[in-house]
């Protein structure tokens, strides 16, 4: 059965739904979309993790503001890949078993300061009711209206901004990262603790605190330390990067040279 605008109905009978699902499943299988590629994920993850490490290194050693900003953007692009892995793990696309995918997803989510289970609940709700008002949490974004009903119901600042939401899309979606990292997770923790305390929730909270330390505390400590030249030089000497010479070329704006005694970033 083809679903078109004229045949689409939000509610299907159970048997009808099962039949449609079977057909869809067969088509997806025939297109080999269920076929995992371990090599793809291994090489992709290797590239992304290397890019993250290199970005961190460059961020730590450069004092050139423009270069710093460009590298920060590249780092952000690499980190968004962690979200992609988390998504694929939740759909059991990376590894064979659920538990292995959940472990991979939890690691990726924690590195990006997200909670895998909280996100998975939200994402399953999205796939269960894609783009359905009141059911799909992915379209429930305070300052945006994805439907006419929401557009009409906006009040306050959202009402003022709604006409210009296309222009605000990118700057405002930047704030979504904070919503994912804090609001969703805190709501999830409160909900889970209320329904009965489990040891696993304590583990998830610890992972979240670890992620918070990694992204919101450690950078200030590390960059502060690295800016003290003695530590920076010893860090750089120990570094295995052979890009040192080209780095110095790139960071021409930087007053500092690795060999230059008494340098300050
Ligand atoms: Zn999905």
Beta content comes to: under 5%
Multimeric organization: single chain
List SSEs in N-to-C order. Answer: HHHHHHHHHHHH
Q: Regions with pLDDT < 50 over 5+ consecutive residues?
A: 239-265
The biggest beta sheet reads: none
Question: What is the radius of gyration computed over CA atoms, rounded to a whole number of angstroms?
Answer: 23 Å
The helicity comes to 55-70%
Mean pLDDT: 79
The ligands bound in this entry are: zinc ion
Q: How would you portray this structure in words?
A:
The chain is mostly helical. It has a domain at 217-265. Helices cover 68% and strands 0% of the residues. It contains twelve helices and no strands. It has helices at residues 14-30, 38-61, 65-90, 98-111, 116-128, 148-153, 156-161, 165-173, 176-194, 199-227, 229-238, 244-250. Helix 2 (38-61) runs antiparallel to helix 3. It starts with 13 loop residues before the first helix and ends in a 15-residue tail after the last helix. Residues 239-265 have low confidence and may be disordered. Bound molecules: zinc ion. The site of zinc ion has 4 residues, from helix 5.
What is the topological layout?
Elements: H1 14-30, H2 38-61, H3 65-90, H4 98-111, H5 116-128, H6 148-153, H7 156-161, H8 165-173, H9 176-194, H10 199-227, H11 229-238, H12 244-250
Helix pairs in contact: 2-3, 3-4
The structure holds zinc ion.
Residues 87, 91, 123, 127 line the site of zinc ion.
């Amino acid at each position: 059965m083809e679903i078109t605008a004229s045949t689409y109905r939000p509610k299907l009978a159970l048997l009808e739904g099962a039949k449609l699902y079977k057909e869809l499943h067969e088509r997806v299988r025939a297109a080999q979309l269920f076929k995992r590629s371990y090599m793809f994920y291994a090489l992709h993850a290797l590239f992304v993790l290397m890019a993250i490490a290199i970005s961190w290194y460059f961020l730590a050693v450069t004092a050139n503001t423009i270069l710093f900003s460009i590298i920060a953007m590249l780092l952000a692009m690499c980190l968004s890949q962690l979200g992609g892995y988390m998504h694929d793990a939740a759909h059991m696309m990376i590894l064979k078993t659920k538990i292995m995918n959940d472990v991979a997803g939890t690691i990726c989510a924690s590195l990006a300061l997200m909670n895998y289970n909280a996100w998975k609940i939200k994402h399953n709700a999205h796939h269960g009711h894609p783009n359905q008002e009141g059911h799909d949490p992915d379209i429930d974004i305070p300052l945006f209206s994805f439907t006419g009903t929401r557009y009409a119901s906006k009040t306050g600042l959202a009402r003022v901004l709604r006409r210009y939401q296309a222009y605000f899309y990118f700057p405002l979606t930047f704030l979504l990262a904070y919503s994912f990292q804090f609001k969703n997770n805190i709501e999830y923790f409160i909900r889970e603790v209320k329904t009965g305390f489990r040891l696993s929730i304590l583990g998830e909270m610890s992972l979240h605190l670890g992620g918070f330390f990694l992204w919101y505390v450690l950078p200030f400590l590390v960059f502060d330390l690295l800016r003290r030249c003695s530590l920076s030089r010893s860090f750089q000497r120990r570094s295995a990067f052979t890009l040192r010479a080209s780095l110095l070329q790139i960071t021409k704006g930087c007053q500092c040279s690795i060999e230059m005694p008494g340098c300050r970033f």
